[in-house]
Structure formats: structure tokens, C-alpha cells
Amino acid sequence: MASGFHLKTSDKRDLFARLARGHVNMPGFDGFSIEIQASEAHFETAVYNLLQPEPLIRCSRLLYSRVPVQHLVSNLTIPQDLSGRRLFVLRSLKR
């Protein structure tokens, strides 16, 4: 599951960002392991890169992707950053 954000740049380009809801550094995190999440993020990145040059397949352009980072410190407090979440930033399709 992910949350989405619509962004408009100063030069009027439409971008959207998908941020995973699950944070691997959250106390009591019980989602997919960091290994599974990293594998899925790498796979999704590869799919976007594979589909992008195909003219008959409408696919948003992947501008940035990040796998979650699991900190080795104790996860007893709520994280103050988003590094433990998968993140994808894409350019919207032209209409």
C-alpha cells in the first residue's frame, strides 16, 4: 500500500510521488522484510525502465526511486525521517 502526492514544478510539469505507508524503522513494524521490499522496489524500477522506450505502451517516466533503508539502531522511537519507506517519483503522462 502506498500514498500518492501530486506535484507541479515551476516549469508546469506534473509529477507524482508514491511513498510506501510501511516504515521499516517504526517500532513494532510487522510488514514485509527489508529484503522483500528492496527486491520489489528494484523489480518495479526495472519494469518502468523496460516499458519506457516502448512507443505503444503508455507509461509514466520514472525520475527517481529509492529502496527503504533500515537503520541498525534500536527502533523504539518513531522515526523522524522517511528513509525507511520506498519512494518513487514519476513524471505524469502527457494527455
TrEMBL record:
Organism domain of life: Eukaryota
Organism: Lasiosphaeris hirsuta
Protein name: Uncharacterized protein
